[in-house]
Amino acid sequence: MSLRFEVHPQNPQPRLLKQAADLLRGGDVLAVPTDSSYALVCRLDDKAAAEQLRRLRGIDEKHLLTLLCRDLSELANYARVDNRQYRLLKLGTPGPYTFILDATKEVPRRVSHPSRRTIGLRVPDHQVTQDLLAQFGEPLLATTLIAPGDTLPMNDVDEILERFGKLLPGIIDAGACPMEPTTVLDMTDDEPVLLRQGRGELSRLGL
Length: 207
Hints:
Elements: E1 3-6, H1 14-25, E2 30-33, E3 38-43, H2 47-57, E4 66-68, H3 72-75, H4 83-92, E5 97-102, E6 118-122, H5 127-136, E7 140-144, H6 157-164, E8 170-173, E9 183-186, E10 193-196
Parallel strand pairs: 1-8, 2-8, 4-6, 5-9
Antiparallel strand pairs: 2-3, 3-7, 4-7, 5-6, 9-10
Helix pairs in contact: 1-5
């Protein structure tokens, strides 16, 4: 059964987040709340954990995963960002936006796009996620928690446990969060390309 870490959504208990971070360091996959929905997360450099994350989500290696970062400075370690891109990123972080950018060598080839060497990155605007990232000390590999065969992301902890309780080592329970995926923008061309309209409004980015 999953370990359930019940935390306060605005002031999460550091002791519980440390326990969750220890699970991640040990190679486990966790479900965590974000500003768009719950997500599955694991260590970036753990191949077995990334494979388990894909199995839980029901996706193959062609599905682009996302890196959750604490802030723009951390994001810049994993993606090549020019001044034009940085200005737009600054408008959308933290927030419910995923930016597709050219990956640096810090990103393992197996988690970037198989032919383009791109990676999705975002800075979530959720206190629990931010505190977990700070406790963990590095970005987390993530994918929206959508059950295999479903189309909508999950945001109810009891439903997540009912569906994944025997498969998922742990879940950080901060109550319900939004139930809409992020807006996805491809930033690798001269102009941003909208790949998915989600919770993030384009007007915030001046688009």
